[in-house]
Amino acid sequence: MSKARLVITAVVVEGRTQAEVAAAYGVSPSWVSKLVARYHAEGEEAFEARSRRPRTSPTALPSATVELILELREKLTTAGLDAGPDTIGWHLAQQHKIEASRSTISRHLAKAGLVTPSPKKRPKSSYIRFQAQMPNETWQSDFTHY
Fold first, then answer.
1. Is the dihedral of CA 105, 108, 112, 116 positive or negative?
2. Is the confidence at residue 129, as pLDDT, over 80?
3. Is pLDDT larger for residue 126 or for residue 67?
4. Is 146 a domain residue?
5. Are residues 38 and 69 part of one domain?
6. Contact 114, 70 (CB under 8 A)
7. Is the dihedral of CA 115, 116, 122, 123 positive or negative?
8. Which of 7, 72, 121, 141 is spaced 20 to 30 A from 108 at the CA atom?
9. What does the pLDDT average to over 106-128?
10. Helices in 13-118 by DSSP H: which ranges?
11. Are 76 and 87 in contact (CB under 8 A)?
């Protein structure tokens, strides 16, 4: 049984005070009040877990700006110019008076599949160490020619 169900049952069915239930279950009195109010408003649905995901994302770029970024990328590429996030950001700021960070622009370009990933570095395990079985078997020198 979930803690929310236990708390609501203790207050509604058993008739205990909200402060008493909060102290007994180690939760805040405000949470107990929210649960009881939710139970009176929604009934059995109050026992279901709720998503904690934000309902809106106010700092997200508008879709029109994302389309403009993709359009600028296309125009710059066909013109043979640099079409990286810095250049696109400059064009957005100068021509359209829109501010967008470099990382935001690059994230939207990658999401649209317009970025070719660079090859990864070779793994450290592929490097060959200077190793010798016997002393003086391997020599290494560092010198400069004049």
1. positive
2. no
3. 67
4. no
5. no
6. yes
7. positive
8. 121
9. 87
10. 18-25, 29-42, 63-78, 85-95, 102-111
11. yes
For residue 78, count CB atoms less than 10 angstroms from its CB and return exposed for 0-12, middle for 13-18, buried for 19 or more. Answer: exposed
- Find tokens 């200077």 and name the residue: 130
Answer yes or no: is 140 within a domain. no
In this structure, the answer to whether residues 43 and 68 fall within a common structural domain is no
Determine the structural domain holding residue 94 and report its residue range. Answer: 63-111
Q: Residue 46: what pLDDT? A: 80
Measure the CA angle with vertex 83, ends 77 and 84; round to 5°. 155
| Tokens, residue 12 | 């509604």
Question: What does the pLDDT look like over 23-69, one tens digit per residue?
Answer: 999 999 999 999 999 989 988 888 787 888 888 888 899 999 999 99
Tell me if 116 is assigned to some domain: no
Give the count of domains, the chain: 2
Whether 81 is in a domain gets the answer yes
Count of residues making up the chain: 146
